[in-house]
Amino acid sequence: MDDRNGYRLPTTYASYQTLECVTIAAVSVYDNNGFETLPVKIYHPGEPVHAVNYDMGRSSIAYWDADSANYYLSTGGDRVNWNQGWEYRNDGVDIEKCTDVNAGNIGYNVAYTSDGEWMQYTIQADTTAAYTVTYRSASSATPSVVHLQIDGTDAGSLHTLPYTGGWQTWSSSSQNNIILPAGTHKVRLVIDRAGSNLSFFSFTNPVSVNTVPFEFVSACTSTDGNLIYLTVNKGVTELNQQPGDFQVTANAISLGVSSVTIDPENNRKLILALNVPVRFQQVVKLSYSGTSVVSDGDFLTPFTEKDVKNNLLPRFTIPCLIQAEEFYVNNGFQLENCSDTGGGQNIGFANPGDYLDYLIYVPEAGEYKLDFRYATQSTTGRIEVRIGDGSEFVNHGSVYFPSTGGWQVWKNLSVNVNLPQGN
Fold this sequence. Notes:
The chain is mainly β. The chain is 4% helix and 43% strand. The protein contains one helix and 34 strands. The strands form eleven sheets. Strands 1, 3, 6, 8, 9, 10 and 12 form a seven-stranded mixed β-sheet that branches. Strands 2-13-7-11 form a four-stranded antiparallel β-sheet, with no helix packed on it.
């Protein structure tokens, strides 16, 4: 395989050492900062886009795989394979040999998938059109749910692949009205739910975009729960400020929409500001009826109770028990095995300036008792309890810890702290 600078990379590898050297060379030759990718092949509509020919580049840039590294601690433990297939390529995606009789098979398929993984491909189209996307997959379990992103934006709704009865028993399934604009694009195949092997997908049967309804594609919340991002399949050219055309519920309770705007960076996205924020783990639904959203004269097709992906980070609802190792951010502490009742781990080896962040939700403002389970051989231990929204923190008091007589001699200590309502 030749790159654009005249370097040659082998398409087959003789040893693990060769693989390692080629990977390092590819990063240094192609991209000095590691945030770009190069296509293994530039694909076009009408031909199979082979799942194993995702772009060359770093994990989280060209692909995302749940086990793309092999970590092993000096204190012992089992090694965990960073790759389950050991075929065709040498990075994190799991690849195995494929026995599909379909002419699109090149001898290998992506396997051993996990929720949230994705691979990115380079696809070039001469004209803008709406296509039928066909997926070639195999499954011996509950099959995968997938969707496509084009240049970072969802291009189609979730698609459930078929159960086929075997990991090498292959079948095709299709999804209509996926719009692919003219030009060169980065297309991601996202695995929302694992459960299928993937051989290839293809864009076929092009039709004019004008024949495709203007409709809902996907929706998700912001990480703070105050906004909903709605993606549609065509660019919004006219928006009449009618927030009442949208209805949002969380656990069947109406939240209300205060405003609707077009995303300034992407006219296929609308930003809905909520009167009441979404909370972690709430089931969020979105409906639309009206004529306020327009794309080149076409009104957005009404929809009812569409799923909204809840992107809020996990939070502890007060009152509750929080294990010390259940932090959101750890700046400086180390974990060690704990000999206290119940075992598990504790945090320790603190230095001045170290801190731990925990995400909590306080249903009602008021004074709460904060109980610590601690052990120390020191007589000068002190911490500050700080509360904030993530950007600014206010010190709510210091806690001094008298010696317990040993680093695994455990005692209780309580203080009172005033907590405001909210996250």
